[in-house]
Amino acid sequence: MRVGYGLHSRLDVADLDGDWLPLFTVWLDEAGRRGVREPNAMVLGTAGADGRPSTRTVLCKGADARGLTFFTTTSSRKGAQLAASGHASVTFPWLVVERQVHIEGRCDPLDRADSLAYWRTRPRGSQVAAWASEQSQPAESVEELESLFAVAEERLAGVDEIPMPDRWGGYLLTPERVEFWQGGRDRFHDRVECLRGDGGWTVRRLQP
Ligand SMILES: Cc1cc2nc3c(=O)[nH]c(=O)nc-3n(C[C@H](O)[C@H](O)[C@H](O)COP(=O)(O)O)c2cc1C
Hints:
- With 208 residues, the protein is of the alpha+beta class.
- The chain folds into two domains: 152 residues, Electron Transport, Fmn-binding Protein, Chain A (Pnp Oxidase, Chain A), CATH 2.30.110; 38 residues.
- The protein is built from six helices and nine strands; from the N terminus they run H-H-E-E-E-E-H-E-E-H-H-H-E-E-E.
- Helix 5 packs across helix 6.
């Protein structure tokens, strides 16, 4: 397979104006409008104490000057690795628009109040699933899985506002490095890197 790139003219470093967030917001919006189905889906990379990396996709539920938020079961495999290292990386693979963004930095649990605020917006079925599943633990069979959901559903049937499980919550990824990438002709791609320093962001072009 060999796909040629070249949808975009070169990024101007000056367009970033010393901050990653405005361009990220524009690209996220454009990815959605130009056919990426879940443009807020990001591949989350973590590594535990042994330094071995692992990845999986999660949904970005917020992006502002503080960073990116996502939600998960904190006792999961990724949660254990985040607790061990305190760092993460994410990639937004917007392939149909020939773009990707990588963000790396510290990754810390959100305050319980912030996690709860998002928990309350989740559909009831998702809340039941969070109670039913000890994410990343083995399951004996499909029947066991169905039964875990059914038991949780029955237990919560009379509960108006389902409480947030202790093992569930959000994380804030605080960017220290952000890279914007666009496909270029002849694989001579466009890359711009933003690095956080004491005085703010430094923006520079990278070789493809
Ligand atoms: C498009 C997409 C979005 C997902 N969003 C989330 C999410 O927001 N939170 C989450 O915990 N898992 C999400 N998942 C499932 C994760 O990829 C993963 O299977 C799960 O979190 C367990 O990962 P772990 O065992 O490495 O902790 C999503 C999967 C896909 C394909």
